[in-house]
Design goal:
UDP-galactose 4-epimerase, domain 1; 2 domains; 10 helices; about 40% helix
Amino acid sequence: MAWLVTGGAGYIGSHVVRALAGAGLESVVIDDLSSGHREFVPAEVPFIEGNLLDPGALAASFEAKPIDGIIHIAGYKYAGISVKRPFHTYTQNVTAMVDLLRAARDRGVDKVVFSSSAAVFGNVDEDVVSEATPKSPTSPYGESKLIGEWLLADAATAYGLKHTSLRYFNVVGSGSDDLYDSSPHNLFPLVFAALESGRTPVIFGDDYPTPDGTNVRDYIHVADLAHSHVAAARRLLAGKPIEPAYNLGSGDGASVRQIIDAMARVTGNDFTPEIGPRRAGDPARIVASGELAARDLEWEMRHTLDEMISSAYSAAKSHSGAKPRL
């Protein structure tokens, strides 16, 4: 039996596939390679190139091996761009998820780990958000992730689906130099690309209501995130009690300016960032508690900020000149 990993050729998904293998669990990957890389998927893992909206590709992913459950990571994940592309965001994140859950139900697959987002919270007044913090997303992306959580709850009521959703924000670092973040919208790849080309990195907005005026976020290492995805899958397999959602957070967070300063130090590139305009849909602060996830999903911040940066920079340098994926 195997776990179907949607988006398993992407930055996060490929780390989850490797974490599954490390735990002795098999996987099947479906990915349309719109932002993923075929070479990220190990040769021994069945790979279906296609979108979840393609009935043929979706069916093939369930037929590659007997499927125990689904780790659903595929989706359009860019909050700022989603404001300009709401229909695309809803189609990829909501319609595709409906098709996926319907296919699972029809085949008797009743376990789902959903890659949600801290973007479901929107702008909050609390210093540290908990799972119970009211949800008020500020972008179509955040809205689509919240709808995904609702879909799971409704499917649980309708036909007994067992599920959990993992909420997190900025995922950084690398567990291996051959797996790197190629997004043209994420902070780390943007800074590394600027440094490589001799340009000055840009901070998008320094007038937020935060101590230094820049966004404050949780930054978590991708390998730590992947570990807890697998822990959630194993908990579902064991039939243990599981919460409908978990925050995978640091509890304190870091500002974009703190990240930039650390990048200059770790990479040995001395620079002063430029200040650009805010990006639409970006909340000022999102920092989450990881207490529940630590209790149930082996969640732990195992990497320091400097280790996150150094591992990401090493992977980026190993693929210098690689084309970013939208």
